[in-house]
Write a structure and sequence with these properties.
Strand content: 35-45%
Distance between the termini: 55 Å
Largest sheet: 6 strands, antiparallel
Radius of gyration: 20 Å
Mean pLDDT: 78
Order of helices and strands: HEEEEEHEEEEEHE
Oligomer: single chain
């Protein structure tokens, strides 16, 4: 029986750790824009969490909706924040305070890209305008998905088509668009 050297043992341990990490589940946010036939897949490395920041269309007041993709691939509304009582009441919140936690699981969420100030998608410290996903008035359908870290990393090998994406360098958030293919 051969005895492995310390360097070989260390190499084997590194491979085992890398393999374990590569198979870790990663939440993914899929955003479909049927008007232009595109779908964006955005990995949510930070525990599946993201936010939508907007000016409420009826009250013209700021609102932040905090979401997470759960293990069942549902999008869960976890909190709503707004300094406006009217906006909070619109969401069915009558208690005092600016931020309110909740648990509202949904299979999908539909947003229209605002005609005024467009909404922003926030993931970690990165923010992207909804205009990178469609034009004013376009219907965006968001769904949760799951993949492995390895599968997500492998998608970065290809150079995707970003017709509306402008890089500022060093982004933590990358929006990848995939054109629908007819069956």
């Amino acid at each position: 029986m051969a005895i492995l050297s310390p360097a070989s043992l260390l190499g084997c341990a590194a491979v085992a750790v890398a393999a374990g990490t590569a198979l870790q589940p990663v939440a993914v946010l899929e955003i479909e824009n049927a008007a232009v036939g595109s779908r964006a897949r955005i990995p949510l490395w930070d525990g599946g969490r993201f936010s939508v920041v907007a000016q409420h269309s009826m009250y013209d007041q700021p609102v932040t909706e905090e979401f997470a993709v759960d293990a069942e691939r549902r999008i869960v509304l976890e909190a709503v924040s707004s300094p406006s009582a009217a906006v909070r009441e619109y969401f069915g919140i009558s208690a005092a305070g600016e931020r309110h936690a909740m648990q509202r699981p949904m299979d999908e969420i539909v947003f229209r890209v605002a005609a005024g100030t467009p909404q922003k998608l926030r993931i970690g410290s990165a923010e992207r305008s909804f205009l990178e996903l469609g034009a004013h008035g376009d219907r965006l359908v968001m769904r949760g998905a799951r993949t492995t870290a390895l599968a997500e990393w492998l998608t970065h090998v290809r150079v995707p088509d970003f017709p509306n994406f402008q890089s500022t360098g060093g982004e933590l958030l990358e929006i990848r668009k995939v054109r629908h293919q007819a069956p």
